[in-house]
Amino acid sequence: MGVKGFAAEWAERQDRVLKLYGALLDNRRRLCAAVVQAPVLAVNCDANVSSEVVGLDRFRRYYVPYYNEVAEVLHAGGKLAGAHLDARIWTLAEAVEESGWTTWRR
Q1: Average pLDDT of each block of 10 consecutive residues along the chain (106 residues)?
Q2: Which residues contact 29 (CB under 8 A, 6 or more apart)?
Q3: Is there a domain that residue 14 lies in?
Q4: Does 105 map to a domain?
């Protein structure tokens, strides 16, 4: 979709974007339940979060609750949870610390 595509869809059809978000979240919940049974130590639950695209408000509203939920399930199963965060991520550092991730380094 790209940054321009996301911005246009968010501005013009936010209800559809949120419907897609809900479907993706349901799918990730099913994957998390399956992966907690896998013989692995750590799970990367997200990729390429960019503060420039997502922004702090959306990160707190949509990512942190997901991170907390996933971390709770994975930690209960003895797994570490993580995410790949890119670019000028320092703007999201406080919100990441509010999440259920195992560690955070600045």
Answers
A1: 89 96 94 91 81 88 89 88 77 80 48
A2: 69
A3: yes
A4: no
DSSP element (H, E) containing 97: helix 93-98
pLDDT of amino acid 100: 66
**Residue pointed to by tokens 């896998």:** 38
Contact 93, 106 (CB under 8 A): yes
**Residue 105 carries which DSSP code?**
-
pTM: 0.81
Among candidates 33, 35, 54, 53, which has minimal Cα distance to 44? 35
Report how many domains make up the chain. 1
- Comparing CA positions, the residue from 16, 21, 23, 31 lying closest to residue 54 is 21
Q: Which residue range is the domain that position 42 belongs to?
A: 2-98
* Residue position matching structure tokens 């339940």: 33
Residue 62 within any structural domain of the chain:
yes
